[in-house]
């Protein structure tokens, strides 16, 4: 991996980040979903798409029943089928996503006034999720759990350190709460309906009283639930080809979808060690995980 402006990346990702920095032109009407790796981007993409387009589709014929959530919102830094100008061809308002740290997005992203929705997650769960994912994607480059954990704890992980990633968006959400919404995976799992209502409000499209009476937020949450999405044939079979010809099975984006699975993989002592490191890094920021 290469250290680029305080974050570690694989070389192929650096190339695409540099390209995005030069070519991405943020618009004030854009909304961008941002997250560190394995913090629930797939889920947030689905929720975001469903909330934004809720008046267009009924729940029996919804596009999310036939398309993987990763396909409904493009990544800023991943060109679609090699087309570098694809994002420019999209009409406003665009719904986009990124794993890039805030400081690596073009400076005009913040000044454009576009909305950003960020999702963070307990680093212990994000780590375990990443470890599984990494070993599936990088066949022949298996990394054992202990080595991976030590690397992750030192901030030496793909797009890491995660705490730097979290903090940049957290600070921006404090400074500009009308434009940056900071969500936690654990809160969303605990109270999904409350957070979907919050998301719609933030996006400037609050649920009407009628919609709430009709149970629309509940239906959206059900449609985007782990159980529903992971059981759909579209999400169980097939694959994507991502950057540097990396092949990813669509089903790999759905593993357990739960809070606290880390305890089934790393010891309490390791968990405490990572907690202490992260607490120290977040100290004074007001962000508590
Ligand atoms: P686990 O590996 O802990 O199960 P990302 O989408 O950012 O790659 O994150 C993947 C993680 O989100 C995985 O976590 C995956 O199972 C979980 N996930 C995917 N869809 C979800 C959903 N609808 N609800 C909750 N978690 C979901």
From TrEMBL:
<comment type="similarity">
    <text>Belongs to the sulfotransferase 1 family.</text>
</comment>
<dbReference type="GO" id="GO:0008146">
    <property type="term" value="F:sulfotransferase activity"/>
</dbReference>
<protein>
    <recommendedName>
        <fullName>Sulfotransferase</fullName>
        <ecNumber>2.8.2.-</ecNumber>
    </recommendedName>
</protein>
<feature type="domain" description="Sulfotransferase">
    <location>
        <begin position="28"/>
        <end position="286"/>
    </location>
</feature>
<dbReference type="InterPro" id="IPR027417">
    <property type="entry name" value="P-loop_NTPase"/>
</dbReference>
<dbReference type="InterPro" id="IPR000863">
    <property type="entry name" value="Sulfotransferase_dom"/>
</dbReference>
<dbReference type="Pfam" id="PF00685">
    <property type="entry name" value="Sulfotransfer_1"/>
</dbReference>
<keyword id="KW-0808">Transferase</keyword>
